[in-house]
Amino acid sequence: MYTIVDIETTGNGIKGNRITEISIFKFDGYEVVKEFTSLVDPECEIPYFITGLTGIDNETVRGAPKLEDIAAKILEITQDTIFVAHSVNFDYNVIKNELKHIGIDFIRKKLCTVRLSRKLIPGYRSYSLGKLCSALGIPLENRHRARGDAHATMLLFKKLLRIEGADTVFKSFLNARSQEATLPPALPRETFMKLPSRPGIYYFKNSKGTIIYVGKAINIKKRVLGHFYDKSSKEVRLCRETADIDFELSGSELVALLMESAAIKKHYPLYNRAQKKVVPAYGIFMYEDRKGILHLAYNKMKLVPKPLATFYSPTACRSYLEEVCKSFTLCPKFCHLQEGNGGCSHYSITDCKGICRDKETIINYNQRVRSAIAEIDVEVGDVWIKEKGRTTEEEAVVMLKNGTYCGYGFIDKSIQINSEADIQGYVTPQKNTLETQSIVQSYLNKNKGNIFVLAEKVV
Questions:
Q1: What does the H/E/C string look like for 275-289?
Q2: Max CA-CA distance within the chain?
Q3: Most buried of 153, 202, 329, 349, CB within 10 angstroms?
Q4: Three-point CA angle 247, 233, 268, nearest 5°
Q5: Would you give the DSSP letter of residue 198?
Q6: Which residues sit opposite 110 in a β-bridge?
């Protein structure tokens, strides 16, 4: 037994979306055995653009039942049925989220008529409900109203059930391991299955082949699947437009980050926002107080005359200072990891030797601070970073000249590196941007053991 469902909403994504109308046809594969259609009071204002699309305005739903008033009917008619809709994840997730708000769990098996249509009747330019019904001669009345769209979806579903090979396809789609109900409507399952579980970057493309999102991951397939499960408004819109996914392997997270940054700058995808913003830089610095105690602190770069290290968020500064504090048994109070009078009381750094309580000499404490500064303030000249390659036979390299990022490449492990010229032939030149500075600097602060001057490690 199936229930073919369509809803109209206020149009505020998944989590902020409220239902304004719902229509459900209970269908046994041959006939409609029961129907439930109702307007719904969303208990909020309906935007003008939604009224322009559906014709449903605030006056239309005045006096209509609230969702909690009809929840029992929705549960009853869909009980022990397969939930069917055109782009099923949208309707299903909105209903599930709305019911969750009133304390009701909603779990049903799902089938998507968009994905079923692409599989059973391939070759159409568009699989939107309107264009598909027009191409197949299916009557569609009261477009963008719940009952009209649900009735047309039911007729489409009835046609799909009778296509040769439909039984096999339906069983495959209902298999929990197939992930068919999770994938975006326009994305072929074969495309998703080809994604590797390895580090790299991935490209979401729309039906025209335009790159609309670039991401990086240590495990590409797992990260991509995470997009499909994310119900934020942005992710839902992104997935609904995704018709293809391409990828490039990187071998390591560092190279993936650099590849992602370059790809975003090259393609400027619609759904990438993070690297379109100006990222403020922060510097770690040292100063001496009136007692002669050396402090480590951080601030915005424009307020730091001579930074010992550069980061691109206060959180990164604090994390780094915590590691320095632990490594050199410094006082968290004098590393500005906590404020207030009296001795230090950091939640995780507990091995302070007592400089904050006058239990340690300033000379001894400052000596450890200077050792920490020597560790932090290392000049990075013409060097290269060695990381894991895309295969076991190669290594990835990232090249810096005078501490400035120049590009990355991949070199076979059998090739001997003795000079800068040996590396340059394998490195793809890249622009040094604020984002790449942030990526490289963060890496250098944590991974000095992977930095080489020609064939020698930087120590």
A1: HHCCCCCEEEEEEEC
A2: 89
A3: 153
A4: 45
A5: S
A6: 83
Structure tokens at 81: 């049925």
Q: pLDDT tens-digit profile of 359-387?
A: 999 999 999 999 999 888 765 567 788 89
Query: Which helix (H) or strand (E) covers residue 373, if one does?
Result: helix 362-376
Q: Tell me, rounded to whole angstroms, the distance of Cα 193 from its chain centroid.
A: 19
| Total-model pTM | 0.65
Helices 88-101, 233-241: inter-axial angle, 10-degree rounding: 160
Name the percent of the chain in helix, strand, coil, to the closest 5: 40, 20, 40
For residues 345 and 450, which has the higher predicted lDDT (pLDDT)? 345
Q: What is the pLDDT of residue 325?
A: 93
At 156-184, the pLDDT tens digits run 999 999 999 999 999 888 886 767 778 89
Amino acid at 384: W
Give the pairing type, strands 451-453 and 383-388.
Answer: antiparallel
**DSSP string for residues in 82-117:** EEEETTHHHHHHHHHHHHHHTT-----EEEEHHHHH
The count of residues in the chain is 459
Beta-carbon count within 10 A of 123 CB: 5
Say how far apart CA 432 and CA 430 lie, in whole Å. 7
Residue 15: the pLDDT is: 62
> CB 447: neighbour CB atoms within 10 A?
12
Residues 45, 375: Cα–Cα separation, whole Å: 59
Q: Which structure tokens are listed for 453? A: 């001057």
Report helix angle 146-161 to 129-136, nearest 10.
50
The pLDDT, as a whole number, for residue 276 is 54
382 vs 403: CA distance, rounded Å: 6
Q: What is the mean pLDDT of the chain?
A: 89
Distance of CA 424 to the CA centre of its chain: 34
Could you give the residue ranges of the DSSP H alpha helices within 5-87?
48-54, 67-78
Strand segments, DSSP code E, in 238-289 are: 244-249, 282-288
In this predicted structure, the answer to whether residue 5 has a pLDDT above a threshold of 80 is yes
* CA separation for the pair 284, 377 (Å, rounded): 10
